[in-house]
Amino acid sequence: MTRRSALTLTSAVTAAAVLGVCAPGSYADTAAPEERQLINRMDGSRLALLSDGTGEGAQAITLRAPSWQYKTVKWTNTYNPDGSMVIRNVAAGKCLQPATAAPKAGDGLVVRTCDGSAAQNWTYRWEQTDGNTGVTAWFSLRPKASPALAITLQTYQGSGSWDTLYLDRDQNSTDRLWRFLRDGATW
């Protein structure tokens, strides 16, 4: 096995372990998606909905303080046949999407009724590293309609215990890196 094929295999195994990725060409629609928290690398904050709201258009934020125990911190990710994913908030029963129909830098993020629209499809890009394997468990989340953008933190909002989110240029910085985390798991 060449070094390159070993790295490709390692990347695929890591993707499967971290994201629950189906094998290429398969579409797992029969099992219920696993509920997880979506964690940001920069400050360890957890994706949730502002004021724990579950209504149409509720604003996505991240919670920094562990004392904030929102019911909206649980998410599922379901893969589409094309490899993109839909990210659904468990408590709201709604899907994550950019606040506007034509995503652009500066747009916020909200949840809306899951309708299968392109606005609710997300792609990911693994973090780039200089290490030997180049594999990490962190990735940027990009609207499929605008893959040059990524979900980004705008830090220290409110009392400093939560962050707002917006779309900005996709780059390899910690405010744009995420991972799904099972309950009780460490990062």
Walkthrough of the structure:
- 9% of the residues lie in helices and 34% in strands.
- The chain is mainly β.
- The chain has a single domain, classed as Trefoil (Acidic Fibroblast Growth Factor, subunit A) (Trefoil).
Q: Which architecture per CATH?
A: Trefoil
Number of strands: 12
Q: What's the structural domain tally?
A: 1
Q: Give me the secondary-structure category.
A: mainly beta
Order of helices and strands: HEEEEEEEEEEEE
What does the radius of gyration come to? Answer: 16 Å
Q: Any idea of the CATH class?
A: Mainly Beta
Numbering strands along the chain, what is their spatial order in the largest sheet?
A: 2-3-11-10
First CA to last CA: what distance? Answer: 30 Å
Low-pLDDT residue spans: 1-30
Q: Main β-sheet, in a few words?
A: 4 strands, antiparallel
Average pLDDT confidence is 83
Summarize the structure.
With 187 residues, this protein is mainly β. The protein has one helix at residues 3-19, and strands at 37-40, 46-49, 60-63, 75-79, 85-89, 94-98, 109-113, 122-126, 139-143, 149-157, 162-169, 178-181. 9% of the residues lie in helices and 34% in strands.
